[in-house]
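Lab notebook: predicted structure, single chain.

Context: the supervisor wants predicted structures on file for every construct in the current expression panel, including those that have not yet been purified. This is the next one on the list. No modifications to the sequence; it matches the entry in the shared construct table.
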Amino acid sequence: MSLRGFKTWLRDENAGIDEDFSGKHSSGPPNGNVGLDDGSINHYDVADPEVLGQLNAYIGSINEKEYLDPRVPVRQLQSKLAIIGLHFNDTFAPSLQEVEEQGLMTVELDVTQFGGRYGKLDDESREISSDDGISHRLGAELKLQLEYSISASNKYTITAKLVADVEDDSDITT
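Prediction complete. Output recorded below exactly as produced.
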């Protein structure tokens, strides 16, 4: 089939498709529900306060349940955030014994995006350096704050949110 024939075939095949449902400009569910991936904003841009707010709402979904092993939802969260390039090292999360001994424990984990940046990052300096890939856009480091506690039924509850680590204690994530 020639290229001209292929283009004609392609045009004829797509003739009956409604443009609104072709999938070209939408990534949300076809039933009209607006999800995290409704396509209206760029979820890779964590410097945008609206994006951080939506990510925190999404991350907050693990806050609503109790868990037998609190490491499971943290690992699930890690894999979900990896989709948009956010990574954190969960090996610094507390052990089950530490949470049981202290009752309530808060941990802040460093977050990087796409593994960070490496190279000559500053125009004024000729030095090779690296950063988290976020702080140059956000103006602060991004941390995943995890608060572990034990409920009355001896199950674990986790409160998780992304926070900007700003030195003047102002919260960018509002």
